[in-house]
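Recap from last week: sequence in, structure out.
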Amino acid sequence: MPKFLYLWLKRILCKFGNRELHIPLPVFGLGCGVLGLALPKVSLKMGEYASKLLKALEYRGYDSTGAAFQGNTTEITLLKDVGAPSTLVKTLGIEKQSGKIFCGQVRWATFGFVDKKNAQPHEVKCKRHIYGAHNGNITNTRELKSFLTKEGHFVQSDNDGEMLVHTVEHYFDIEMDKAGNPTDIDLRKNCMRKAIIQTADKLVGSYAAVIVDPVTETCWAIKAGSSLYFGIGTLEDMPFALASSDLTAVLRFTKQLVNLREGEFIEYNADNYQVYAQKNLKFKRLNQPDEIWYTGDKIPAKPIYSKLRAEDVELLPEYEYFMEQEIYAQSETTGKLIKLFQGGSNSGKRVLSLLAKAGVRDILLEQVQLFLTENNFAERHRIFTELLNSETFNLFFNQVFSTYREFFDVAVKEDFEKKYFFSNEKNFFLEMVNGEYDLKKISLAKTLDALAEEMNVKDFNASVDDFLQLVKNTILNNRNAYSIACGTSFHATKIAALFFNSIAGMEIIPILPGDFRGEYSNCIKDNDLIIGVSQSGETKDLIDIFNDIDAKDLNVRKVVLVNNMNSTLGQEKSDVAIPILCGPEIAVPATKSFMNQITLFYYLAIKTAQMKLNEIDNNLTQEQRLWRQQELDDYFVSLAKIPSLLKETLDNVSGEIEFMAGKIYMEPSIHILATKISGVAMEGALKIRETVLTHAEGREASEFKHGPNTILGKNTVFGVKHLRSLLRYFSENIDEIESLCEQEGIPHSETKEVYKALADYIFTHNQPFNLSPQGTNIFNRFVQDKDFFEHLYRNYPLIYVTGPDERDVNLTISQINTHKIRGANTFVIAEENEQLLKNASTRPSENSYYAWSYIMLPKTGSTLLTCFSASIVLQLLALKMSVRKMKKLDKLGVLDHGVHPDVPKNVSKSITVD
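Predicted structure tokens:
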């Protein structure tokens, strides 16, 4: 097979066995991760599957790793210990295990010390034999331990996961006794379902869990406030079922997903599954009747085919880090989102035009809809083959092929070979081609894909239209719109407020969930609008706010911008969900999700302004209306330029970024000061804090004068470079003392005491009393009028970010001159401006050390577009600083320093615990 065809096929079919995802050490995470994989019979490769899954969840927990395997008997092989899965899958022998059921967990500790007994999974046999693990935070753990102990359970750890498993065991035993200890499998399963429901009433907190009954060889996956995904597929020609806290882990094995919502649990083995309500549930959607389920109800759930690209979890050969790959992917990911704004890809529109001319569009559209409801690959292949040979498609193919032979035979083949025409995200049907260049099959695949893309565009536009109607309602009722998010997503909402203010003249209040609860929660009224933003759709702080709002029973609508539409926020907590469509994001620091979020907000601001012009602003003159429409047309044009702006920025400023990174990567503290675009500064600072483990703050530039500027000049924030300077000066003083002692004939033993006295004096100013009169005299002469700390002080690094607006540039120039004379180095990120460059580069005085750098962004003349170019510069700066610092600390032999661009210590992709 030709190499290009092999690579294309590999991407199309989402195969992960040929290239292992590598998450390098040190690895840290937050939130834990749980897994449950079921096969119909024992597989010798179960350990390999388990290892791949555990390593995929490594970013969620590094404290401990565990795996439980079950074969053809009820005996369990339980392997667990302290440490990260990338190491323990080998040392514990997990890779070599066989089995038909695997239950695994990676832990970020909340309850219980980091030791082996607190590692999960937990196997319990006090009353009934079951095993399981959890992800989350059960806050009444201590009370549960006391309760369980009194009820006769032997609780071995302080881990909340063990409390959960024991609690399920406790109620399972009660239900089994009530049922007369049945041997019938269905009756036994029914007892377990009742136990899981009763356990939910006993636990306080948020969690996801996998519980296994070794007797019935059945698994239960429970979603109760933490992320949980479920997929089905085929391994080794056998069906399998997989539950995981992480979506990309499931995508490594299958793209067939079963949506799980908060308060649901799923009972499954390799061949069958059934979703149940763990409590009374009510799901609301805009303009649809409420969906109500009662505790214990069976809930119908069909698998859907994920549109996320599983290939995005692979590290491509040209990149060393996922963060790097994701930064450079942003031109593509924003471009795909913008194509959606524009009604679809050019190739898709071209195919739709040909279908319309041939008069077969509606007939084929019915086939696409039928195809998309079928989740069995063999059945999909049958439908595809049947359609390939149908009279309808053959009529279309023959007409188009004869009319557009050159296009299909030359352009399509060229695009096939270069992989341009066949990007997976918008080509669901190309897996039917099986990597073979068959013009007819490819034409059918592209035809069906164009129709599927048209359906996606309609769904997206419907969501945007719903959003606009909610915005209109809020404006007409003179109520408030709040944008609520955490971390990177919060910074995106800060930029969104700028966009809506500048483009639409509409106020959006960006606020953190905790601040919203403290400052606004009792002030919301009917017709307020809540806009939540979350990459994962599982951010616990945001889910809690949405639940609080629901509990008030007000006419308050909730919109969410989310990457994972199958998440809790995406499918059940919002009235309207709008996808950001950035694909899976592996590096813990968010980059492409942030860029797609602000791109989507830019679009929504323009659409809001258009809606206001068409439906609300009725008092404008015709001239004002024409002027306003031209302004909006210009914004739409600028929107289309975002992908090329990002690419040009990366292409042109990489060298300058490398230079700036080299200047500041070892600094202990940095401030990023932005004029008007403070969301950009805050996000840039977060990227540096996350990846470089350097204290960094981002703020509106003028605020630096109101207190934070006290850090300039002499301060006590010292880093490696400061200490090196002090040690060099100390070494010079040692040489001088040694020379003086030799001249005075002081013995070497006392000379060493003088050294020690000097080292103590520098940090305490205590006088030595153990020296001879001669030694004391030399010591006093030597330390007189010396300022040892002077050598610790260095200029403080300030990074300035501004748009090209003249007022903003002048304010930035004022800030630069105010701060550099007080001991600051100047680093500027802005479009080219001669005055800004001159003021940044001029030394505050001829005799002082002064460092400066100027990264010139592509010229746009727009502060709003600067948000995009400056953000990607700060992302790349953080990456370069992180890599430099990581290599430096490795060279210095600093153990467990935690600096890494993909998996920095103590942070995770999705915070799903309180």
